[in-house]
Write a structure and sequence with these properties.
The structure holds two protein chains of two kinds. By secondary structure, chain A is of the alpha+beta class. Chain A is 39% helix and 12% strand. In chain B, a hairpin with a 4-residue loop joins strand 1 and strand 2 (37-51). Chain B starts with a helix and ends in a 7-residue tail after the last helix. The chains are: A alpha+beta, B alpha+beta.
């Protein structure tokens, strides 16, 4: 890790300015609520800032809640106040990192990235439920586990202590680079018996809603480490990559 | 590797043959894109349950998908009410058989959780695959067991009220029957 620390730090520090607006139709107030702005780490997840949005909009939120209470009485739906976001009509999957969502759907938009906050009509056929931070943590840890299954057959993550798992998660949640990397360096270790990862953990996403692409790719070809370009060529053999990438 | 995709594919076609034979209504889905040409198994089942004092119809969907990361099969599932609304984790917990309930309450997120289906990209529940490798290891090493998929599935499926006809087991351990079934597999399918 020592030699690429600066790169890791730069990636970690990548942030996006995001502007949150509540969906007009869900407001029963005469005044349009103000927009709420946040700088969010690209590697983070939207639900980790939901509390801040809720507190900012708490006035409207309370009105909504009261309105719902009277209109729907006890017939209230279990998930009625579940928060979700959309950009240009596309519900945003909270389990993708913020940077990935931006790159997929909004890379050509002007910053700040403006997204819409919803409390109604949760699109349950498109996005996963997320009613607590534990759900985000569980999702994050399962991706870390899966990556380690590819890198070390899961041997590193399974021998870690619970407190190390927690440290990894808290490092990400609280944007603490050193705390996160103190544990993650073990997961990125290649000094084991093989001297390299078994496979490179990656996924290719596209906006076409087709399956994401994932396959087993070794990190070396005839002793030479593969570049990102090599990986792209291996995964998309039909696409003639511009060598200038 | 413990259980390769090729082995999975072969087991899947055998399973499908048995399913057709027993009229069990599993179907094979194909997913193709630039670098993958994968298959998975799918079945939909309607079941009625007593929900409080009401009787309800629930539609279950089960998918058996190969995980390249873990080199094991994974059971994906969803359940919806007759109005199309999906069941939540808590709803599913109610349907789960009593013998699994306690375990589930102790470690809910550790047993199943909602995830994105790798092919349809829509929300599905999965039974976590972390322990599947340990479970499969001794099964795959039994030479007489020709279809480890059946052994694995019949062990975990009852958790989500999926019943595997015991006759799958007779095919799986009966070499003669298995051979006759596997000979009938159309090789262009593989």
């Amino acid at each position: 890790m020592a030699n690429d620390r600066e790169v890791l730090r730069d990636i970690w520090d990548g942030k996006l300015p995001v502007c949150f607006n509540i969906n007009d139709e869900e407001i029963c107030d005469l005044q349009t609520p103000e927009s709420y702005y946040l700088m969010i780490p690209r590697l983070s997840y939207f639900p980790l800032v939901w509390d801040k949005i809720l507190i900012f909009h708490s006035r409207i939120f309370c009105i909504q809640k009261v309105k719902k209470h009277f209109v729907k009485h006890i017939h209230s739906d279990r998930q009625e106040m579940e928060m979700w976001l959309d950009y240009n009509g596309t519900p945003l999957k909270w389990h993708y990192p913020v940077g990935l969502l931006y790159d997929l759907y909004a890379y050509d938009t002007q910053l700040p990235w403006t997204v819409t906050v919803h409390f109604e009509k949760f699109p349950e056929n498109e996005i996963l439920h997320c009613n607590s931070r534990e759900v985000v943590e569980s999702h994050f840890m399962s991706t870390v586990k899966e990556a380690d299954a590819l890198k070390h057959r899961g041997q590193i993550i399974s021998t870690m202590q619970k407190k190390e798992h927690t440290q990894l998660w808290l490092g990400l949640q609280n944007d603490k680079f050193d705390q996160f990397w103190a544990v993650n360096k073990k997961l990125m270790d290649t000094s084991g018996s093989d001297g390299e990862f078994k496979h490179i953990p990656f996924r290719f996403y596209s906006t076409d809603e087709g399956p994401f692409i994932q396959k087993l790719v070794k990190p070396f070809t005839e002793g030479q480490p593969k570049s990102l370009l090599n990986l792209i060529e291996e995964v998309y053999p039909d696409i003639g990559c511009d060598k200038g990438i | 590797m413990l259980f390769t995709y090729k082995q999975f594919e072969f087991c899947l076609y055998c399973f499908k043959k048995s399913s057709d034979y027993f009229k069990d209504e599993w179907s094979i889905c194909h997913i193709s894109n630039s670098s993958n040409d994968n298959i998975y198994l799918k079945k939909k089942v309607l079941k009625s349950y007593l929900w409080g004092e009401k009787s309800l119809i629930i539609c279950w969907e089960y998918n058996i998908i190969y995980s390249f990361s873990y080199s094991v099969p994974i059971l994906y599932f969803n359940a919806c009410f007759d109005n199309g609304k999906l069941l939540s984790v808590n709803d599913i917990e109610i349907l789960v058989h009593d013998v699994f309930k306690q375990q589930l309450q102790e470690n809910k997120l550790g047993i199943f959780s909602q995830q994105e289906h790798p092919y349809t990209r829509t929300p599905f529940f999965i039974l976590h695959p972390c322990k599947t490798e340990n479970f499969l290891k001794p099964i795959v090493s039994i030479s007489s067991n020709i279809n480890p998929l059946v052994t694995w599935l019949s062990a975990i499926a009852p958790v989500v009220d999926l019943n595997i006809d015991p006759r799958y087991g007779t095919v799986c351990f009966n070499k003669e029957k298995f051979d006759s079934l596997s000979n009938n597999i159309n090789h262009s399918e593989i």
